[in-house]
Amino acid sequence: MNSTKNNLSMFNFATLWFGASISVAEILTGGMLASLGFKMGVLAIILGHLAGTTILVLGGIIGTEERIPALVSTRISFGQYGSYLFSVLNVLQLLGWTAVMIIVGARSVNHITKTLWSFDNLTVWSLMIGILIMFWLWLGKDSGWKMANNIAVVLLFCLTIFLSIIIFGNHELFTREGTGTISFGNAVEFAVVMPLSWLPLISDYTRFAKTKRGSAWGSWLGYFIGSSWMFIIGLGAAIVASDADPTAMLLAANLGIVALGIIVLATVTTTFLDAYSAGVSFLNIFPKLKEKTVALVMTGIGTGLAIVVNIEQYEVFLYAIGSVFAPLFAILLTDYFLLKRKKIQPELLVNWGTLLLCTVGTALYYQFIKFDFVMGSTIPVMMIISILHSITWRLTAKWKYAKKSVQA
């Protein structure tokens, strides 16, 4: 890696992840916690984000230290072919997120234009948002992108202030009971899984960090503050207005055109990361392709999915992400930080022992969902898998498929 590319500072990471966390999807997810009431809902949000963001940043540290993308780092524990499997799964989840973000943003924008100008065409807005994401990708990680991202974050920060004033100005926020049936454990799980969904992406960016400290603290503060804030805004909106979608609040405040721009900006800055990292993950399998070109293609596919597929099942989607990536990164983080196995073995193709343990972790995850554990599913599953891996890795050391060494 050329050291001249390692130019992202703590401030860059803070704005990157703060901007990424400000999205309608995060607000809507926070709204799903309304049945807990405001105080218990905020407690679940903070606990989940403390755990989830810390796990996220640990994954990012690997990228900074080794200067490799997130999915390439999984070769440390799972081998080359094992990383291909997770790359495919990650590309699928990122295409899913790209489609979800585009359709959620398009619906909000369409609601605004329908109210203001009677223009009602969801397909057009999905295409427009997809094109804007492609433009953001085209800017790349140069100084132009950093300046555009910083300006976007300032504008989005103003949005969070405005929405917060509206919600916290309602005196019924702390007394009114919300609607829904979500448990405290499931609420914590959603707050953990949201940052967990970025785990297969974070090293795609932290590998370009100036310093490990800067990337770690910038990423942690940016995402923790932004995502927790979005969840709390959604929670408050769902309690006081029975609707977590911020579009209605923006329209009620006569911010028609401004609201349009804000929703589009929030959607683009977040979905850009999904599309870019889908391209990076794809390059783990086909390294000769161009990163930016693949990311643009992924955006096109995600836009097409947003138009033709009705993607609504947030809960099922979030659980699917947690079930795969919680045990995967429990094993990788254990290898890297506890067992000090930090280097990729070029000859290792598949580690059957870790793949088997990852499968066990996925099965455990869905069992913990049924148990409705007070701390959700991700945290206990990662702890159990980490302990099991620490105990069994020597016993399964020979359960591998490796390249045969060639004698000179």
Automatic annotation (TrEMBL):
The keyword Membrane applies. The chain crosses the membrane at residues 41-63, 84-106, 122-139, 151-169, 181-199, 220-242, 248-273, 294-311, 317-339, 348-368, 374-395. Pfam families: Transp_cyt_pur. InterPro entries: CodB, Pur-cyt_permease, Thia_CytX. It is found in: Membrane. Its main location: membrane. It comes from the Bacteria. It is a multi-pass membrane protein. Gene3D superfamilies: Hydantoin permease. Keywords: Membrane, Transmembrane, Transmembrane helix. Belongs to the purine-cytosine permease (2.A.39) family. This is Hydroxymethylpyrimidine transporter CytX. It comes from Desulfosporosinus nitroreducens. The gene is cytX.
